[in-house]
Each structure stands twice: as structure tokens, then as C-alpha cells.
Amino acid sequence: MKISVVIPAFNEERLLGQSLAQIKTAANAFTQRGWEVELIVCNNNSTDRTAEIARAAGAIVVFEPVNQIGRARNCGALAATGGWLIFVDADSHPSAGLFADVAEQIVSGQCLAGGATIRIDTRDRTARTVTWAWNCASRMRRLLAGSFIFCDTAVFRKIGGFSDRLFVAEELELTQRLRRHAKETGKRIVILHRHPLVTSARKMHLYTKLEHLRFLASVIFSNGRALTSRDAAHLWYDGRR
Question: What is the pLDDT of residues 189-241, one digit of tens each?
Fold first, then answer.
């Protein structure tokens, strides 16, 4: 078995090195089983030292010129040679326990994709409340958080990967297509919760609550069209780090 860990990265020189170190440590859960692991970083048109840091950490580096997270993940997946893909955001830290739970799902033969609940690295009450609400919805509806997704590589490629139309919420659209495939094949999508993914709360510090509310309002009042606009989704693409 070979696992391909794909990390999309746009100007992530501040956090990428620590994240890659954590991923490599967590990957012992796979290597202890005798499995191979490859790290693939998609440099999504960065203007900083992202690519240099990734190479120094031993990662395979590929390049996607269009700033769009779905395209970046797809570019990394295209270079992958593993039987399973794990997508991890560059500001997130999976644990060995989480990877061990992924391995158990793979070995079961009954799972085609999955995600994990998240734990945000802040004491901010609003951020923690939003995270709690998301985790509840994720477990009840089997919704995948983009910060951590694992998927059978053949299935991912068969259904066409992430949408290149969406600049935000591409993981939710992928979830819908994975659900249909799971129903057709009799397999399942799981949300792991014993070892939540630790992820950065930086957006809560870099953007005001009003900016977040404005984006939410733009999605609602545009009937979702804002999800297909890089300008509307500036919280992800304006380069603040």
C-alpha cells in the first residue's frame, strides 16, 4: 500500500515547514504497517519561499498557476502514485492517531472516502462555537472538511476530482458526488472523530467578523454564485497570511 499526502500551498512559508514536519511524524502510523508514504506539495503560484521549504522537507513539488484550491489539490493528485490520497491543508496538523484511524478504514475495505472533525487552535468563543456546530453537522451529514480528506485514488479520479468552477466549498460539492458513488458501490463515507485535526484559526485573526458575515451574505443573496468568484472569496485568495 502507498499513501499520497497532498498539500495545496499558496504563500505558506510561515506555516508549511511545521505542518510538513507534523505530517511526517504522523505518517509513522503508515510506515509501521510497512506502507509507503509520499508527500506532494502543490505550489499554487506562490511568491514566497513555499516551494523551497517544501523541497527542503523532502516533498515532491508540483506547480499550479491558477490560484484556486480545488485546482491545486487536483494538480497534486495528478502527480500522486499512491492507492489512497490524503488532502491536508498547509495550516493543519494531523496526528499519528488520526492517520492510524485512516489506515483502519482503508484496511476494512468498506470505505471509499472520509474526513475528520476539527479542533481549531484558539480560545476564541465564537470560533469554537462555529467549529462545534460544523463538527456536529459533519458527523450527522457526513460532510467533508477541506482541511482533511482521504479518498481512494481510483474513485477520486473516476468522479473527476474537485470542481474547477468553485473557489470555496469545493469539498462540499465533492462530498455530494462521493455520496452518489458510495450509494452505487455499497461502500461508505466516514467522519473520524477520535483524533480531531488541529487546524489554524488565522482567518479569525486576519479578518473581522464583519468580513466573514459579508461573505456569508454574498453567498446567500447570490444564490451561491459567489462561490464561483475569486473576488467574492477574497478571504481565501487575497494573500493575507
Answer: 999 999 999 999 888 888 888 988 898 899 899 988 999 998 998 888 988 88
- Within 10 Å of residue 125's Cβ, how many Cβ atoms? 8
Type of residue at 57: A
Given a contact cutoff of 8 angstroms between Cβ atoms, the answer to whether 240 and 233 are in contact is no
pTM of the full structure: 0.95
Class of the CATH domain delimited by 2-200? alpha beta
- Coil vs helix vs strand at 6: strand
Domain boundaries, given as residue ranges, for the chain: 2-200
Q: CB under 8 Å to 24, separation ≥6 — which residues?
A: 39, 57, 58
Contact of 57 with 24, CB cutoff 8 Å: yes
Q: Which residues contact 90 (CB under 8 A, 6 or more apart)?
A: 7, 8, 9, 12, 15, 16, 19, 41
| Secondary structure letter of residue 226 according to DSSP | G
Q: Are the C-beta atoms of residues 210 and 110 closer than 8 Å to each other?
A: no
CA 71 remoteness from chain centre: 12
142: left (phi over 0), alpha (psi -120 to 50) or beta: left
